[in-house]
Amino acid sequence: MNLIAAIEWAEGYHRRGLYSPIGVTFHWVMAALMVFQLAHGWYLGWQPVGGDKYIGYQTHTQVGLTIMLLGTLRLCWHSQISGPDTVDEASLTGKASRLLQSWFYVSFFALPISGWVMWSTLPSDLPLSIAGLIPFPNLPFDQLSEGLQHRLMQWAASAHYWIVWITALLIPGHAGAAVLHHLIKRDRVLPSMFDLNGPASPGVVGSAPDKGPVA
Ligand code: HEM
Ligand code: HEM
């Protein structure tokens, strides 16, 4: 299937108020990696200094850079095809939901980049890679003065820290809002990220759940 055919195929899902299997796969793989990365990052932070912590951070960098690669591919996919109309974009909640989703996209890049800056100012002989498979360079900070390296390290560490916290606090809000849509509004927001077959008729914003094939 070429790109044009893939986009037309995905649009078929979007017209029915659903994310395509490509969008769904991106969502759940990246959601799982983000939750793992946040939990594992905190776990490492509490570990005593030593070999295990050091090796643990290598896994942390590999998963983090994988998130950045997947985020890039996902952004490219999104630039070609927008998502389904699941929420009323003009409403306050619709705007809040899009803002929150945009923040997640920012975090897919801002966290790995701030981590990359930190790592490149640290004296480490562990090489960086994407998923342990594709070698990734350090930034050439060893040519900078020690003072500048120290300032960059502090700046990147505090950016990493704050983006981690904001993202971690927003995830339950995002998941909770999706569940509330399902329980209270009973619309298609939550099923749009699960259902790979789709309703029989095209989706309408805020419509009741699909009742099956239309006679
Ligand atoms: C989306 C990807 C990432 C997430 C969700 C994430 C999350 C975290 C978390 C929760 C911590 C512990 C809390 C903190 O100190 O801020 C942490 C620390 C750290 N991360 Fe990441 N990280 C990501 C990507 C990366 C990458 C790609 C690198 C390096 C190339 C990296 C390097 C570090 C370092 C060096 C620390 C220790 C910071 C310190 O002790 O001050 N991170 N990260
Ligand atoms: C159990 C947890 C989660 C649930 C139930 C959930 C549910 C959903 C649903 C129903 C949508 C579609 C909303 C709409 O179209 O308005 C969505 C979109 C989205 N979610 Fe989640 N989500 C979860 C976790 C996460 C996590 C951990 C992240 C990343 C940190 C994330 C990032 C996104 C993004 C970026 C979108 C926008 C759609 C896209 O670009 O693919 N979600 N989520």
Please, could you describe this protein's structure?
- The protein has 215 residues and is mostly helical.
- It has one domain (3-193): Fumarate Reductase Cytochrome B subunit, CATH 1.20.950.
- The protein contains 5 helices and 2 strands.
- The protein has helices at residues 3-15, 21-46, 51-80, 92-121, 146-185; strands at residues 128-130, 134-136.
- A two-stranded antiparallel ribbon has the order 1-2.
- Helix 2 (21-46) packs antiparallel against helix 3.
- It is elongated.
- 20% of the residues are buried.
- Mean pLDDT is 89; it is low at 202-215.
- Bound molecules: protoporphyrin IX containing FE (2 copies).
- One protoporphyrin IX containing FE is lined by residues 34, 37-38, 41-42, 45, 57, 60-61, 64-65, 67, 111-112, 115-116, 118-119, 128, 157, 160-161, 164.
